[in-house]
Design goal:
This protein is α/β, with parallel strands linked by helices. The chain is built from four helices and six strands. The protein has a domain of 82 residues: Transcription Regulator spoIIAA (2-Layer Sandwich), CATH 3.30.750.24. The protein is globular, with a radius of gyration of 15 Å. InterPro entries: MlaB-like_STAS, STAS_dom, STAS_dom_sf.
Length: 135
């Protein structure tokens, strides 16, 4: 079943690509369980071979307090530092509201791509939505 023995707040999800870790965050993300969630996610990041992308599914995420937001920011920071892509999937209205109020919405929801391999110039920016906005 699960690739990692997680607490009920972090569930491993199947993935189509071998270098991606997909996890579901379930229930409230608050000061009571935030540290455990952080440790579980970091264990999953460092437990796989050549992990290039982390996808956190927030579909079943409940309330998120300031400690929970700090956990999401720490996970993002660690993934960035490791050159791992970071994605929040299925951000619901409650989480979106918190992220917008705190000014972290764009930071946490803009897909962060994995760093290119060493010695590579990296891919060009691929956002077709930025051309021809017709403002």
């Amino acid at each position: 079943m699960a690739a990692f023995p997680f607490a009920p707040h972090v569930l491993s999800l199947p993935t189509e690509t071998p270098h991606t870790v997909r996890l579901a965050l379930v229930g409230d993300l608050d000061h009571e369980i935030g540290d455990e969630v952080l440790h579980q996610v970091l264990r999953a990041l460092h437990g796989g071979e050549d992990v290039r992308d982390l996808r956190l599914d927030c579909r079943d995420l409940g309330a998120v307090d300031s400690a929970g937001l700090a956990v999401l920011l720490q996970i993002h920071r660690r993934a960035s530092g490791d050159g791992t892509g970071f994605h929040l999937d299925h951000v619901g209205p409650r989480l979106e509201r918190l992220l917008r109020i705190t000014g972290t919405y764009e930071y946490l929801t803009t897909p962060q791509q994995a760093a290119p391999p060493a010695g590579s110039a990296g891919p060009a920016e691929e956002d077709p939505g930025t051309l021809g906005s017709g403002a």
